[in-house]
Amino acid sequence: MKEIFERTARIIGEEGIDCLQDANVIIFGLGGVGGHVAEALARAGIGKMTLVDGDTVDATNINRQIIATQNTVGKLKTSAMNERIKSINSDIQVNEIPQIYSPEDRLSIKFDIYDYVIDAIDDVSAKTDIIIQAKKAGIPVISAMGTGNKLRPELLEIADIYKTEVCPLAKAMRKRLRQEGITDVKVVYSREEPVVKSTPPGSISFVPGAAGLLMAGEVTRSILIAKGKKNE
Fold first, then answer.
1. Which InterPro entries did the record assign (predicted)?
2. 172 and 31 in contact (C-beta within 8 Å)?
């Protein structure tokens, strides 16, 4: 076991570290939420990660995105995240897909090779399709709802999308998912009413990051439980 995981092993044991190092996840979107998911999973010990994002880092991302600095502006987000992950743990296997996901791309991504699918993008049609493909493949999926125009990270929570309220993105997603016959989806969403209503939405450093860390925690615990049961 690598020294960097010594403190983590005190919580989940060396067998837990081995379990996470054997895990393979895919993350759609490396913005304020997705970037924090990727970093937290890397630090937890996830061994294989596919990063999907077609954007480059912009100066307007610096206020909330963990990969966004003065030195990374203009870089592909997948490349900036890959470099950051490798600086944490050089043994992680990282696969970059530098493109914006759309339903037409589904055939180029084999959802069934992953232990967990993480959706942290904004487009409703693409989010819906990611969930559909994960469900078809029988792979657990978690989806990020809106974190814009919010100031209170303590009002974020993990819930089934059909038990959410307040969030406009969740409302739009529920309608699409009902049409597809999908009856349950795990999401991270906020119970906070928007502080302002602006388009594009306003943002601040700590709300998207908190959502990403909640997602990473849920994914890590779920993988440990699932792999533990498989090995029983």
1. ThiF/MoeB/HesA, ThiF_NAD_FAD-bd, Ubiquitin-activating_enz
2. no
